[in-house]
Amino acid sequence: MSTAPNAQYTLGIDLGTTHCALSYVDLDLSEGEEVAQHVLAVPQVATPGTLGESSLLPSFAYLPHPDELERGALTLPWNAEPTLAVGEVARRLGGQTPIRLVASAKSWLCHPGVDRRAPILPPEAPAEVARISPLEASRRYLEHLRDAWNHHHPEAPLEDQDVILTVPASFDPAARELTAEAAHLAGYEHLTLLEEPQAALYSWIQARDAWRDEVRVGDVILVIDVGGGTSDFSLITARQSGRALELHRVAVGDHILLGGDNMDLALAHVVRAKLEERGTPLDDWQLRALTHACRDAKESLLTDARLDAVPLVVPSRGSRLMGGSLRAELTRDEVTSLLLDGFFPEVDADARPTARARSALTQLGLPYAQDPAVTRHLAAFLGRRLGADGTTGGGSFVHPTAVLFNGGVLKSPLLVARIVSMLDRWLGAERAEPVRVLDGADLDLACARGAAYYGYARRGGGVRIRGGTAKAFYVGVETATPAVPGMEPPVRALCVAPFGMEEGTDAEAPPQEFGLVVGEPVRFRFFGSSVRRDDEVGTVLERWGDDVQELSAIEAVLPLEGSAAGEVVPVRLRATMTEVGTLQLVAIPRTGDRTWKVELSVRGDAD
Amino acid sequence: MDEPKPSFLARFFLAYVAWFRTVLDADFAEGVVRLRRGQLPANAGTDANAQGPTSRAPAPKPVILRETSPEAALQLLGILQQEGRFVDFLEEDMSGFSDAEIGAAARVVHEGCRRAVREHVTLEPVRSEGEGARITLGEGFDAASVRLTGNVVGQAPFTGELRHRGWRATRIALPKVTQGHDVAVLAPAEVEL
């Protein structure tokens, strides 16, 4: 079981791309809808040698040089000499020395093309820096939160509490499993994973006393979550169940690595181009300072429609402030053309993301979204999930009736207005009602709060969102055709886990058998589809389009117990949805009781 | 004691007088007993002006001036420098620069210092009324938080115009400092390799 028997608190943790937060509900003091909920002030080194507290822990780690900092510069209340810095100080030091900064570990954790257990971060680090793996970085952030919690609540150690950790709805099984593994390594005993858009809706429910009046049976709630690093969509329907209202998460979007950080970087490149036209080249340090300045300017321009331009100043690096500072400005036209038209363009409901070459948006290594238009991804999401809400009425896309926004980027009223007016135009064209905006959530802390509230609600019978797996999963089976030189043998996809498997359930093992070679790792190609809702276990796909995506390969090893090396053992594959919220695949031999775990997160070489 | 030490002759005379007084005066004898135990006689402190037991007045309280912690001041200065280049700004010679250049620098200082102050200190005005409003201060108003200026005569209640709303810090939370951290280094020198 993932719930702790003697828990005094339920903890909700948002392990974000750029920030982490921890919120908690005191179970003894909470009764019914009266919830005693708080946000943990996380102690963290602010600058070398000083310790501050903040509700947000920046998701950065810094690997200092042994001679770089004075003794005790990174001292924490629970650790006198940490070898690695986490949080605010890491972000600060990393701003000056990026080769030692680990950032966006979460994006790396769901990158199928790399070995996520291998020390690969920071990617640009020189050889003498002892790099860490994406898994290790996540573990460090979770350890910091654990120690911060135990520091404030020594009477209720974290390992005895219920912890709900949020993950993007679009995280694939390997990324979920790695997140759970990081939490396990950090000493989290009672863990459950929750999808971020669901957490956002829980947070909204908790913040609105009268939410039952605002959500009606038949509602289709679209959750749009644009964070620092990812964009995530989910659809949640409200159905009648007996006398009560029941919420079902019926669809999630595909993983889109696109967020606020890309927008800031895009703006900074435009301003840099302006400065360079005037003959002022910028070095890396200045570009980073400019990106910071652009973020603040963007927020001002996207919040206050009366501003026409915001001046930007990049201070000189030395102690002389006047002579060396660079001045530029960011105008409303630039923000409109770049952000509104670049990332949130007015498109039609039948628009689809295009794959095209990008400039200026990418950093080394991560597979950023090909099309930066969030609205095109949204149109594709709604168009491809037609029927997911259970309606059969005509229309070319799912018609949402309400929309909930989450993520720091969508604090901007201008962006929200753009999305809402576009949704209404799409709906109007198909003679549907405009959407209602569910507002009133705190976008920075919604995920952590919602997660802690969910932990409380599931104990006390509060409203729950039912979900299950948001994808169907398939294992690649090579067909027995004569080998043709230069041609890969065609692959068919065998469904092993259907859409909507609930936590704590097993799927049946399909009858097809695979031959595993004893003592040798055997890899299979692995696929997922967030669109094919009706495939059952055992369904075989002969060919498919972009409705099925290849995930990182999976690997099974049969140890040498009792069989000779090289012997081929026929096995079947069975999928389980664990209580924690991860997918597990086991290999079952034809004879005997033992089963073998199939590894989901091996180094991907899908292409 | 700033009197010079008595000579041998003076001491002989003192012993002679003391012998008689000790025998005849019980109060004096009690004082000698205390003196031999190493304590001062009971009325030693007030002896100089003690004409009688009734005229004793309480001594004036010594003035206590608190030493404020220079550590916190340096720390705040350090934060303002790190976030808003405050010390750089103050230490720069402004004379050769145009208002536009100074304005650009002021933006950096204003933005950063404001962010830093808002993070560590919560400020609110002492008076919530708008500046220019007429306000009346009753008897026993807090003279530490409201300063009377101008034609200060007569008795409370005082009525006048609010010239400045005042500021009060309702919360201050400076980062804790680790042992051995030198707060006097407001900004370390930076050497890029």
Strand content of chain A: 25-35%
Strand order of the largest sheet of chain B: 1-4
Mean pLDDT of chain B: 82
Low-confidence spans of chain A: 356-364
Q: Report the uncertain regions of chain B.
A: 44-53
Assembly state (oligomeric): heterodimer
**Would you identify the CATH architecture of the domain at 9-194 in chain A?**
2-Layer Sandwich
Please bin the fraction of helical residues of chain A: 25-40%
Strand content of chain B: 5-15%
Determine the structural class of chain A based on helices, strands and strand pairing: alpha+beta
Outline the biggest β-sheet of chain B.
2 strands, antiparallel
Helix count, DSSP H or I runs of 4 or more residues of chain B: 5
Account of the 3D structure:
Chain A is α+β, with helices and mostly antiparallel strands and 607 residues long. Chain A contains twelve helices and 29 strands. In chain A, strands 1, 2, 3, 6, 10 and 11 form a six-stranded mixed sheet that branches. Chain A has a six-stranded mixed sheet with strand order 18-17-12-13-14-19, with helices on both faces. Chain A has a five-stranded antiparallel sheet with strand order 25-21-20-24-26, with no helix packed on it. Chain A is globular. The model of chain A is unreliable at 356-364 (pLDDT under 50). With 193 residues, chain B is α+β, with helices and mostly antiparallel strands. Chain B has a two-stranded antiparallel ribbon. Classes of the chains: A alpha+beta (607), B alpha+beta (193). The A-B interface holds A 46-53, 70-73, 75, 96, 296, 311, 313, 315, 317, 319-323, 325, 327 and B 75, 82, 85, 88-89, 91-92, 94, 97, 101-102, 104-105, 107-109, 111, 173, 175-182, 190. Strand 5 of chain A pairs antiparallel with strand 5 (176-177) of chain B.
